[in-house]
């Protein structure tokens, strides 16, 4: 990483400068929010790029008020409300991608998952590719269920054979227009839309590949702007990162972002690997080999202070020899989530065959109990899902 530099210069470029920028930005945020710098400052110990401290020392109530101000949330009354960009003024949305890779239909999978966790979901995460039209009739039924309305988080990969540069250049405009017409005719409700999530591991940095970080940014912008030009104004857009330090260390990483005008929420998809023990370790993963990286929540706080954060996928894998790990992890989420007020939605990925293991929440009695307790926590039930 530091070829050709002295050890001291390497340490400065990899460790000190990124953290310096983050702290400087957070200082600006603090002043704009009208609070003392100590309330928001991150204690980022330098040393040999040691892991930074978890969160600020301010109370959860004060942190929530500060973050809501930055997000433009100004409730008109005592009741919890939802902004036009689907940001809840109280707590956070609770969602799920249910029984993925089981072959069950979305409606049945959701019904079973909600029965297991003991409450209806606020968000249903579904996946579409290529020319598929959405929301499907089944997904519309899920969203409009009179027994409990739900928000849809629709994850769309526009193509598997066209490059990002080709899409940005108009190669799929007919497909985008057809989708726009379908949405306009069938689904006026607001929904979350993420376009080709987790782009990091698809980047090919070589110029002319059509799959550079700049190409991704241009593709995302083109798709969103084209949908809007065709009249789709109810799609609340989400930029979804993988949430892994190794990708964040790439020199092109910052260039993935499509721009504030086409991104309403920012999101990450972190999973509890063998080195993650608690919720903080999940949303703020750091690694010794990527010493300048402060963790995704910290980075998003600094980079996107005016954007709500979504945990669009998260999962806890089984651990050999630790049958109680899921139980302890879900307990940590409940204990710690209020310390992260910019996280406005948590969407669990429930699957017996996730790419790296089993993320079902009910593989042990303790895991089921603590997951159900988490799902029913008042913080995750504070704001009702809106009608439109």
Automatic annotation (TrEMBL):
<keyword id="KW-0326">Glycosidase</keyword>
<protein>
    <submittedName>
        <fullName>Glycosyl hydrolase family 26</fullName>
    </submittedName>
</protein>
<dbReference type="InterPro" id="IPR017853">
    <property type="entry name" value="GH"/>
</dbReference>
<feature type="active site" description="Nucleophile">
    <location>
        <position position="313"/>
    </location>
</feature>
<feature type="active site" description="Proton donor">
    <location>
        <position position="198"/>
    </location>
</feature>
<dbReference type="GO" id="GO:0004553">
    <property type="term" value="F:hydrolase activity, hydrolyzing O-glycosyl compounds"/>
</dbReference>
<keyword id="KW-0378">Hydrolase</keyword>
<feature type="domain" description="GH26">
    <location>
        <begin position="62"/>
        <end position="384"/>
    </location>
</feature>
<dbReference type="InterPro" id="IPR022790">
    <property type="entry name" value="GH26_dom"/>
</dbReference>
<comment type="similarity">
    <text>Belongs to the glycosyl hydrolase 26 family.</text>
</comment>
